[in-house]
Amino acid sequence: xxxxxxxxxxxxxxxxxxxxxxxxxxxxxxxxxxxxxxxxxxxxxxxxxxxxxxxxxxxxxxxxxxxxxxxxxxxxxxxxxxxxxxxxxxxxxxxxxxxxxxxxxxxxxxxxxxxxxxxxxxxxxxxxxxxxxxxxxxxxxxxxxxxxxxxxxxxxxxxxxxxxxxxxxxxxxxxxxxxxxxxxxxxxxxxxxxxxxxxxxxxxxxxxxxxxxxxxxxxxxxxxxxxxxxxxxxxxxxxxxxxxxxxxxxxxxxxxxxxxxxxxxxxxxxxxxxxxxxxxxxxxxxxxxxxxxxxxxxxxxxxxxxxxxxxxxxxxxxxxxxxxxxxxxxxxxxxxxxxxxxxxxxxxxxxxxxxxxxxxxxxxxxxxxxxxxxxxxxxxxxxxxxxxxxxxxxxxxxxxxxxxxxxxxxxxxxxxxxxxxxxxxxxxxxxxxxxxxxxxxxxxxxxxxxxxxxxxxxxxxxxxxxxxxxxxxxxxxxxxxxxxxxxxxxxxxxxxxxxxxxxxxxxxxxxxxxxxxxxxxxxxxxxxxxxxxxxxxxxxxxxxxxxxxxxxxxxxxxxxxxxxxxxxxxxxxxxxxxxxxxxxxxxxxxxxxxxxxxxxxxxxxxxxxxxxxxxxxxxxxxxxxxxxxxxxxxxxxxxxxxxxxxxxxxxxxxxxxxxxx
Length: 661
Ligand code: PRX
Known about the structure:
By secondary structure, the protein is α/β, with parallel strands linked by helices. The chain has 19 helices and 30 strands.
């Protein structure tokens, strides 16, 4: 994608609803400006005030920010706290204790409600089961779970005893799981026999077994298995324990272990521009502060709200806005096991009505696919459900196109709910640039302005500020509490990837292009500037997919992967493949493409399957042998190649690549 593209002309502005704004936590732009001014005036004092007010500290911190070893910043370092205690224990004895923490709706529609009190008991009991197994502070625990309450309990239980969790999305392959177990040096896996999605049962434990059988996972001592369905799964004696076995006889009282604020709460793997996924390491104190505070600020959380973030716990959104933020903020939240289209594409709207959801947070891809379904079947249109409970809508994970924004605003939000288009990343821990529902005038397709304390800017390649109206690189000029601390096992890569020396080594480089509007200074994200794709809001590295393709050593000689715009998924994966044998055509090409797509699914996961595979006898290369990706991007889009091809070694190849079989 050409990230630094022309400025979007978008003149529509939607002012916040005056009545709602008056009651909001951040009410009006003057309140927003005052917070920003406070952060400008006294940066450390600002964060200190918020950290003391929003977290319960077992040992209060005396230092706010340590920049002595930048970019390895430390926040609140000598303070001690526990993340789970800040999500659960702190509510005991308050009106939140008996409030519903989680409304869980299963794939088949069964609903269960769990109060904060009950959740604390269940987390404590599970934490005791982990302790009884010899798991303790600093140990890494890999979580590969369905989207159920038990997944959140597993994460909270790890946090409770100071173990560092690493959640892997249930759609990743055995190989991806294996890589992450080894990189993290995990001592245990928490999984389920099966996951239920869209009326089907999909294996999880079998994939764990396959991953562990790949070798090198000797660090794993125990596999905990949640029996989500009645179907039996393979259990290895001496290694595998069902939840029932692990929990038997465990007390539901487990004091939370206070850890240092910088103690790694979790490592979450995400794709970068080189082959190997990066283990993004987050802290306990700074991370949790921002998860809690952005619940209050971005979602204007009120005690009566019913919050629903549709993200899976396998992604950062499911960490910050399912497993931690809503609980730390004392919210009632909905957790949904299944997919938006089962049993029909009206499921989300029906669930909003059923549970009287007030704040709904989802991804543009989901919205686009539900628009498509609603426009062709009135029965699944949001108008069929009473969505009057909604007051705030959110969007996350990829740019939302103005058409989808308008549809969401009108048909879901009834033109009364502000849309918070939240820009952020796995690395940022929480929201960075987003409207505030009671303050910011909205412009479709724009994530508007940085949150107070977030010093976002747009610069050129040397790190110099760029004028509004001109595209450039999105950076953050000062550290913030929930930022990535390092890449697990790879501090050098952390420095290089996020704090490039060419830009002075002090600016956090997000990896996105952005432009600020000339009039309001609003940010609009134009897409990644590196070899990272965003397919349905899922982050994928082109190199990762290329490595997966060429690892099919029997068939594939060479492969190059690029993204191309896609109406539904935002971007689609397009692979150019040179086979070892002859270039296939017709049915043979279709069969070969299927085989390679399945291969990628096996290597990485179904989410990485190329939508489009083109076969050629060679790839377009410069005389020095570099693949000309720019050209491939044009070819993938079906555009005429207008770039300079004078350095191209083999121009005839372009015709072949342009032909779909
Ligand atoms: O390109 C940006 C896009 O998603 C990337 C981060 O992906 P990930 O780490 O998986 O986190 C996704 C959930 C926070 C960013 O670099 N992105 C995320 N939110 C937006 C966005 N692009 C445009 N608008 C957004 N609101």
